[in-house]
């Protein structure tokens, strides 16, 4: 009886501690700034509030610390093999065997074998990552792009700047979701000049399609890093969106970038850094520590960009997304 009481008491204490942590996080979570708050139904507003109330930033930082812990060699193959089985990851594509990765971070960001992702030789825009195309299309004349069908968000709030297409041109976009089992490095979708890095603080809500469908403007609330520049047809950008347990975003050419900083929150002014970097199609640009979402936005002549993918399609790095049809 005494042992049973100890178990019940421990469970109550754990439940109280967890409830207190969530209550404190909810009380301490700032509201979404009006400029970023997209219209939502009462149900969507409740889901958005509940998702933001969770201590996702602190949990992601804790997970990041754990993912850097050294794993003994005899445990690596069982741990990474179980992960691959559960999340359907293909370890045969990895450059090194599982025992070569000393931490979870090393494993999650594992490089692929040379030549295993050929870059389409013709397409103007190729996939920057392995993942799922959740949506693609043309940015509306009012500067909005779809998060899902019938739910959109403002491009300027998302990027931290307001790109204006030139006469006779429009903006196009493609969103690629990287699942936990996918290859976590991302690459340049086109040949372009990167002129600026924009680091925008925010939440770290899950970007799983199930939540994206239920939380309007989720991408404008999450922490993200935008690379802004120009290509042959005008404006070009690639944005890496952070997510739950993916607070760490690395950009290869930017050693100063530190994401998920303690005290940062949605609505803070973007941190900007100028660049002068020419990136070729397929060049590795950075990596996520787990899985997340990439949003590519580019300018092209009106009605003269043809997509070769559609929402719901699985893509691989270097696969054609589309081309300008001049």
From TrEMBL:
It comes from the Eukaryota. Keywords: Decarboxylase, Lipid biosynthesis, Lipid metabolism, Lyase, Mitochondrion, Phospholipid biosynthesis, Phospholipid metabolism, Pyruvate. GO terms for cellular component: mitochondrion. The keyword Lipid metabolism applies. It holds the Pfam family PS_Dcarbxylase. It is an enzyme of class 4 (lyase). Its cofactor is pyruvate. GO terms for biological process: phosphatidylethanolamine biosynthetic process. Its EC number is 4.1.1.65. The keyword Cell cycle does not apply. GO terms for molecular function: phosphatidylserine decarboxylase activity. Pathway: Phospholipid metabolism; phosphatidylethanolamine biosynthesis; Lipid metabolism. This is phosphatidylserine decarboxylase.
């Amino acid at each position: 009886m005494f042992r049973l009481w100890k178990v019940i008491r421990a469970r109550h204490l754990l439940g109280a501690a967890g409830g207190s942590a969530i209550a404190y996080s909810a009380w301490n979570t700032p509201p979404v700034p009006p400029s970023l708050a997209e219209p939502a139904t009462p149900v969507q507003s409740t889901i958005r509030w509940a998702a933001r109330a969770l201590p996702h930033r602190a949990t992601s930082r804790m997970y990041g610390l754990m993912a850097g812990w050294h794993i003994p060699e005899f445990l690596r193959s069982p741990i990474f093999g179980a992960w691959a089985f559960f999340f359907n990851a293909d370890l045969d594509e990895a450059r090194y065997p599982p025992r070569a990765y000393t931490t979870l971070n090393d494993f999650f960001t594992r490089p692929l074998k040379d030549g295993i992702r050929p870059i389409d030789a013709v397409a103007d825009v190729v996939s920057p990552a392995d993942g799922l195309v959740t949506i693609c299309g043309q940015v509306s004349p009012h500067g909005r792009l779809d998060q899902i069908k019938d739910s959109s968000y403002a491009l300027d709030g998302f990027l931290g700047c307001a790109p204006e297409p030139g006469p006779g041109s429009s903006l196009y976009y493609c969103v690629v979701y990287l699942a936990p089992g996918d290859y976590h490095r991302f690459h340049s979708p086109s040949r372009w000049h990167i002129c600026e890095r924009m680091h925008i603080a925010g939440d770290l809500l899950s970007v799983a399609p199930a939540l994206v469908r239920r939380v309007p403007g989720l991408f404008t609330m999450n922490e993200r890093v935008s690379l802004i520049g120009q290509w042959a047809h005008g404006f070009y950008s690639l944005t890496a969106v952070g997510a739950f347990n993916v607070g760490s975003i690395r950009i290869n050419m930017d050693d100063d970038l530190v994401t998920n900083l303690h005290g940062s929150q949605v609505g803070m002014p973007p941190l900007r850094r100028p660049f002068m970097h020419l990136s070729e199609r397929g060049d590795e640009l950075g990596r996520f520590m787990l899985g997340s979402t990439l949003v590519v936005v580019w300018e092209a002549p009106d009605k003269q960009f043809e997509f070769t993918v559609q929402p719901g399609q699985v893509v691989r790095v270097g696969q054609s997304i589309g081309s300008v049809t001049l």
